[in-house]
């Protein structure tokens, strides 16, 4: 059963910006190289004539991955025409024709699997994210991803998270400092670890993971950009929200929850008043969307 219930013509995500073209092209070059290798011996059996193809989405989904799909086909046939009938981030019902293509038979067939692999994987990620976003609607809580992505496809999957209405956590180990128990152990205390991080990387966001309410108060007192309350009990989580939002802290530092989150529990966690819920399974547990690309006459053409 699909976790979202899209309506035909529903709006796509506003302001969705894909990764730079060089990132998409690099992803596509690797995918085509591993699939085609020294040449597509199966496509060689087909006449290289003008042809058309239809891209069909067989189940309800959030569409994501158009830049990669397009780049796969244009890499093999720069003159291919791709007419999309839906926007990136659109929610579509089952049996929706997403796009039609007009080009040459052989490159259409050679690019088919790589283009679908990108589209089905990224649409799967976006669809899963949308289910969580729907689940917390009205609470003010935002859904975050993690670094638990498919190797080599981090920018693509984090883009898919945005397409599903989620928010990106740090991109990698370079663009934000995240303090955990190892840092506390090395520094001697949470406060000392926070002060050391601020001194060494004053221009980077600082995220602090806490394991107890006492550590929470220490992190709030020292100051940081976000506090991760990891694997708290429900009562401790609610108490953490009361502490963070009460005097003297006043809710200035947002709280993030991770661990033990699924579609059955995320609403209750959000209703406790946390600002973010991060979920590794958004990008780690990927179920591809069922798509097909077949040589056929264009519907209505």
TrEMBL record:
It comes from Luteimonas vadosa. It comes from the Bacteria. The keyword Glycosyltransferase applies. Signal peptide: none annotated. Keywords: Glycosyltransferase, Pyridine nucleotide biosynthesis, Transferase. InterPro entries: Aldolase_TIM, NadC, NadC/ModD, Nicotinate_pribotase-like_C, Quinolinate_PRibosylTase_N_sf, Quinolinate_PRibosylTrfase_C, Quinolinate_PRibosylTrfase_N. Residues 126-294 form the Quinolinate phosphoribosyl transferase C-terminal domain. NCBIfam families: nadC (TIGR00078). Residues 40-123 form the Quinolinate phosphoribosyl transferase N-terminal domain. Involved in the catabolism of quinolinic acid (QA). Belongs to the NadC/ModD family. Pathway: Cofactor biosynthesis; NAD(+) biosynthesis; nicotinate D-ribonucleotide from quinolinate: step 1/1. This is nicotinate-nucleotide diphosphorylase (carboxylating). It is an enzyme of class 2 (transferase). Its EC number is 2.4.2.19.
